[in-house]
Predict the 3D structure of the following.
Amino acid sequence: MRKAVELLNKAGFKTTDSGDGVTNVEAGMEGALPFPHIIVRLDSEFLTPVFYEFERLEQWLAGKDLGDLHNLEVELSYSNKSKIGLAILQWDP
């Protein structure tokens, strides 16, 4: 996962959170996600550029060797209030 975070940041994406889905959950951390993940922040005042940035992320991920990230799934979430999009990368442990 560390390799993937470093590569994403190097490519200009803003990672905001990552975790193995176990360590923080077992430690009782409130809000910890119970699955392996990396979250990438996609900022824009408007929704359409967030979709373009999401597409750029998907294209960048294609063919990349990201180590142990098997069966990678990418999900997009967008808040109309904060004007922030989040791309949630998750995979099989």
About this structure: The CA atoms of residues 50 and 84 lie 8 Å apart. The chain has three helices and four strands. Strands lie at 14-19, 37-43, 70-79, 84-92. The mean pLDDT is 88.
